[in-house]
Amino acid sequence: MGVRRSFKFLLRPTSKQAASLAACLEDHRVLYNAALEHRRTAYRKAGVTVRYGDQSAELKHIRADDAEGQGRWSFSSQQATLRRLEKAFAAFFTRVREGRTPGFPRFKGRGWFDTVTWPKDGDGCRWDSQPEHPSTAYVRLQGIGHVRVHRHRPVRGRVKTISVKREGNRWYVILSCDDVPAEPLPQTGAAVGLDMGVASLATTSDGDPLDNPRHLAASAGRLAAAQRALARKKRGSRRRRKAVAWVAALHAKVRRQRQDYAHKQALALVAAYDLIVYEDLRIANMTRSAAGTIVQPGRNVAAKSGLNRSILDAGWGVFLRVLAHKAESAGRELIAVNPANTSRTCSRCGHCAKDNRLTQARFRCQACGHEAHADVNAAKNILRAGLALRGAAEAA
């Protein structure tokens, strides 16, 4: 059975193509913002709710009136941008119904709109547009032309959608493919629990820590220098644009390092274990700022800020997302469990008490005297909880 996968490749556009890509991205951003303003104005002045179908029907007239601008690009890609706004409103109304902070859709500044999507290969775009070329892949984009692609690995499955994304001064093409063949690995009969951490990215129930490289901390000096240089530049100047690009390039490098490390560690885990149990962490809640105001600041604000930075630098979200993809492709089972009290419960006798965890690293059960590394003890509890969930599901 095939699965859905994404393949991301670096684009090698000419200077003229890079300018066209930037113009395409900017026009789609303008379209998004205009559609948002249309919805806001219609509701505010007339109480009318404008939906995707209404705005999509107007695209034909918009393109005809602006043939040298909006009319240059693929009709389907512009529809995808309007669907993106529709999804933002759908998420907004969902949050309202659930009583969460609504977060009304916002206008997109130049730094907050970086992707254009073509919903169907062959409709305004074409992957591998020059298949007769012996060594290089190309993607054809309407209004831009045949753009060279650095295809560092083969594309499998059926290309469904094509997206172009700008990261700093680089351009990437992202292919979403259906029917990608799964690659099940041989059974090992082993199971493992993972306790996520900061000192180590994770600790297994077998007692093996996964190192936390702290990529952001390693680049902190260069980032600080780049930020200081940026702060000295005059807004709107060419030097400021170069400084912004420098900062963006450093952050992009950290992201690539973090993702590369996550892929390597996840691959090692799915190769060694049939069942992987991890904590169902609410990372967004865990990394919220310390409560308080300017007049009455919260307690330990600096410490909380440092912890948040360490959690985000560890890249739990990236690691767990990559692990889920690799586990699905390899035919491994992945179970998320409630992390409550896993660090306070004795993995030997089950006694749960706050005093069991003496320090961040040391665990000693106050009931049976069992001693262990606190993270290893927690990982064993996580594994046990996962096995119990699987057993209950099989019995149901």
UniProtKB/TrEMBL annotation:
Residues 316-382 form the Cas12f1-like TNB domain. Keywords: DNA recombination, DNA-binding, Metal-binding, Transposition, Zinc. Pfam families: Cas12f1-like_TNB, HTH_OrfB_IS605, OrfB_IS605. InterPro entries: Cas12f1-like_TNB, RNA-guided_DNA_endo/Transpos, Transposase, Transposase_put_HTH. Residues 1-45 form the Transposase putative helix-turn-helix domain. It comes from the Bacteria. Residues 183-289 form the Probable transposase IS891/IS1136/IS1341 domain. In the C-terminal section; belongs to the transposase 35 family. PANTHER family: RNA-GUIDED DNA ENDONUCLEASE RV2885C-RELATED (PTHR30405:SF11), TRANSPOSASE (PTHR30405). NCBIfam families: guided_TnpB. This is Transposase. It comes from Microbispora bryophytorum subsp. camponoti.
